[in-house]
Design brief:
It is a single chain. The protein has 10 helices and 12 strands. With about 290 residues, the chain is an alpha/beta fold. It has 3 domains: about 1-85 and about 155-220, Rossmann fold (3-Layer(aba) Sandwich), CATH 3.40.50.300; about 90-155, no CATH class; about 225-289, no CATH class. The strands form 3 sheets. The protein has a 6-stranded mixed β-sheet with strand order 5-6-7-3-8-9, with helices on both faces. Strands 2-1-4 form a 3-stranded antiparallel β-sheet, covered by helices on one side. Strands 11-10-12 form a 3-stranded antiparallel β-sheet, covered by helices on one side. A hairpin with a 2-residue loop joins strand 1 and strand 2. Helix 3 packs across helix 4 and helix 8 crosses helix 10. The longest helix has 16 residues, at about 170-185. The relative contact order is 0.14. It binds adenosine-5'-triphosphate. Adenosine-5'-triphosphate binds next to strand 2 and helix 1. InterPro entries: AAA+_ATPase (IPR003593), ABC_transporter-like_ATP-bd (IPR003439), ABC_transporter-like_CS (IPR017871), ABC_transporter_ATP-binding (IPR050763), P-loop_NTPase (IPR027417). Belongs to the ABC transporter superfamily. Drug exporter-1 (DrugE1) (TC 3.A.1.105) family. It holds the Pfam family ABC_tran.
Amino acid sequence: MLGAMTELVVNVRGLRKKYGGTVALDGLDLGIRRGEVCGLLGPNGAGKSTCVGVLQGQRSRDGGSVEVLGADPATAGRRWRSRVGIVWQDESAPAELTVRETVRHFARYYPRPRDPEETIALVGLEAKAESRIKALSGGQRRRLDVALGVIGSPELLLLDEPTTGFDPAARHQFWELIRLLADDGTTILLTTHYLEEAEALADRLVVVAAGTAVAEGSPEELRARFGTRATVRWTEPDGAPRSEETETPTRTISALADRFGGEVPGLWVTRPTLEDVYLRLTGQSEVTR
Ligand SMILES: Nc1ncnc2c1ncn2[C@@H]1O[C@H](COP(=O)(O)OP(=O)(O)OP(=O)(O)O)[C@@H](O)[C@H]1O
C-alpha cells in the first residue's frame, strides 16, 4: 500500500491534446504527491494552462491517462469537484457584490467550506470586505480569486500564474499564504513564469517545453544536475579582476589561497541560478524539437 508521502494526488501519463493542428500537449507525464507544492514551468505556449485545464476537467484530452484524487477529471462528479480548488484566470465573480457577499456566496457551494471571515483574513482583504468587486485593484482582485479557490477547503489547489500583475510586496504576501496552505496539508500545483517564485514555493519543479516534461526535481536538484559549473572570482594584486569557471571550485580556491599565502582578495563563488538552468533546459528543447 502506498504511504501518505507517496500517494499520487495527480497522476498523468502520456497526456496529449491538440487544438486543430496545434499540438499543445505531446505525451506529458506528471505526478504530484499528497502535500507537495509542485511548480510547472515553461515558456509561453508550452502547454501549462492546457494541462491545468485538463486536470480540473475543463478541457478534454486526446490521449493519455489522467487521475486526480483517484478519479478521471473528464467524468468525475460534483463531489470530486468540491475537493479541487481552482484559481480562475478570468474574472467570473459578479462586479456589483462585495468581497464578503461573494466569499459567503461561494462558501455555500461546498460541503465543508472554510469560515468566510477567516478566509477573507487569510488573503489579507479584511479592510476591503465591504468593497464592491469592481472597486478592487488588480492585485486585490487576484487575492479574492485565491479566497474563492480555497473557500471549499480543497485537497488540491490549482493555480495558473497566480501572481501575474502583483507588486513585489503583494507577491511576497501571496507566497506566505501559499506556505500556510501547504503547511495545512493542501497539495498545490502552480504555473508561473517567475523563477524566484518557483524557487521560493515549490518542493518540486517540472519544466515543460513543447508539450512534454523536459526535466523535474527540486530547485536544488535541477541546479545540481544541470548547472554544475561554479564561477570563482578574485582580484589580482595589481587590482585586476579575474574569474574562472570550474567544476572543482574548492581546488581552485585552495590553489589561490596557496598563491596568495592566505586570504584571497575579492573572493566570490557563484553557482548558476535556477534561471540559468531553466533557460538552458528550455533552450535545448527548442533545438532538439
Ligand atoms: N483554446 C485554444 N485554441 C487553440 N489553440 C490553443 C487554445 N489554447 C491554447 N492553445 C495553443 O496550445 C498551445 C499551448 O497553450 P497553453 O496556453 O497551454 O500554454 P502555456 O504554457 O500555458 O502558455 P503561457 O505561458 O503563454 O500561458 C499554444 O500553442 C496555444 O496557442
